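ok so i was messing around last nite and threw this chain in just to see what happens. nothing serious, just curious
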Amino acid sequence: MQENIKKELLRLKVNVDKGIENFGEEYEEQLRRFINGYDFMRLGQAVNSGRFESAAMCVRRMSIEAEKLGLECFQRQFTGLRQNIARKDGLEVKNILSLVIVKRIQIQDVLKTN
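result:
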């Protein structure tokens, strides 16, 4: 991974060292796979259709993967999503999901520079 990409990811609260420790040389590929994956879309669809159980399972799966990848930038949002999904507060879940999407796009932009 290039140094300028590492610096930008660190600025976005991505613990690159933890991700490399977990995935080794495949870290960048795994990070791209997660960020460009369909889980974000599935989560949005589940929330918009009121399927909170499905949304909860998706957030659980995503938070585990994000932790392995060192994506500390999502920890707070995923916690908020889990809490508000449990309360079935669709509006607040959508607000937090919009923050997650913004952060995802920022990470995608950094990874596109490579």
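not much to say yet. The chain has one domain: 3-112.
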